[in-house]
Amino acid sequence: MQPLLLTMGDPTGIGPEIIIKALLDQVFTDLSHEVQVVGDVNVLSHAARIFDCTAKTEKLDDRLYALCFGASSLIVHSRSDLDVDSIHYGQPDTSCGKAMADYIEYAIDRCLHASAAGIVTCPINKAAINAAGYHFPGHTELLAERCGVDKVVMMLAGERLKVCLVTTHLAHRDVPSRLSCDEILQTLRITSRAFQQQFGIAKPRLAVLALNPHASEEGLFGDEEELIIAPAIKAAQAEGITADGPHSADTLFHFAVKGAYDAVICMYHDQGLIPLKLLHFDDAVNVTLGLPIIRTSVDHGTAYDLAGTGKANISSLVAALQMAEQMADNRKL
Fold first, then answer.
1. Is residue 139 part of an annotated ligand binding site?
2. What does residue 266 show for φ and ψ, rounded to 5 degrees?
3. Can you name the CATH fold of 1-149+291-333?
4. Cα–Cα dist 11/16, whole Å
5. Residue 333: what pLDDT?
6. In angstroms, what is the C-alpha Rg of the chain?
7. Mean of the per-residue pLDDT values for the chain?
8. Are 13 and 123 within 8 A, CB to CB?
9. Which of 182, 232, 292, 306 has a Cα-to-Cα distance from 265 of 20 to 30 A?
10. How much is the pLDDT for 140?
11. Whether pTM exceeds 0.85
């Protein structure tokens, strides 16, 4: 069984310490797939001191180490050689930016060559990565380019609710101009296929939200529903996709949380993220659908204000690992 690769993220954020905390809490032993970390073995060893632990480092091969804490151990693909004395929690620098990108690219390569079951990512600092010469807004764009994919879908998921976004990070005033029948249809296709291939659901039930209040009240509050959203739903249905709508966002989530749908297709970021985080603030998972590989992520940032304190919550990391394993076990090509 191939391992899951857990990328360390920003060395100066909470990534290293939540990995160590998960190890000490025996989180990895509850998974059927082995978890191996892609990061920096010295940074991880340094993070163990936050929990008053001393790690024993054993070199297994070139850039491959075992990090041992008594009976607990962790395989580490150490892809950087950062000076732990010169980096400080909450203060990212260019050397960390390059390291973050290297961790991700190594993990992607392993998955594309079928020597890993999937990637789980800890949070990165986008500014530091771009300062190091990588021109990507974030993880998702880097993953898409390296995997040769033009269109992916961002899904935020919890046990009770899963939301997929047609548009992501842009001003609300720009959302209507970025919506199109084709964009919505592609989102529906990718979501339906991913749920079939990676979540084991033969006919995923997708609810499509309206853009305007009350689904525009037959054109009273806008015409995007009639001109863009409804035609996309009709086209998806013609392809055999189980989708319906446009639904008014102020009522649909009530039924979705009760189990009427497998996922909700949202027109813009906050439309989906507000209800999702109301229910799953600590344990939400960020999933990239449409890639040829499995990628899940914690749904939080580097949390510089908590970095180095040992107080960061590991619930999202645990959920991301569990979801990646579920997707790997269900995967159908």
1. yes
2. -110, 145
3. Isopropylmalate Dehydrogenase (3.40.718)
4. 6
5. 59
6. 21
7. 94
8. yes
9. 292
10. 85
11. yes
135 annotated among ligand-binding-site residues: no
Does 269 appear as a known binding residue? yes
88 marked ligand binding residue: no
Q: One fold for both 1-149+291-333 and 150-290?
A: yes
Rounded distance, CA 90 to CA 92, Å?
A: 6
Amino acid at 89: Y
Residue 8's pLDDT is: 98
Does the annotation flag 33 for ligand binding?
Answer: no
Could you tell me the CA-to-CA distances from 65 to 6, 77, 100, 113, 242 in Å, in that order? 14, 7, 18, 21, 47
Per-residue model confidence (pLDDT) at position 182: 98
Query: Which tens digits make up the pLDDT trace of 21-30?
Result: 999 999 999 9
Question: What are the structural domain ranges in the chain?
Answer: 1-149+291-333, 150-290
309 is in an annotated binding site: no
d(CA 310, CA 323): 24
Rounded alpha-carbon distances, angstroms, from residue 191 to 94, 152, 161, 195, 263: 36, 9, 14, 6, 8
Overall average pLDDT of the 31-41 stretch: 97
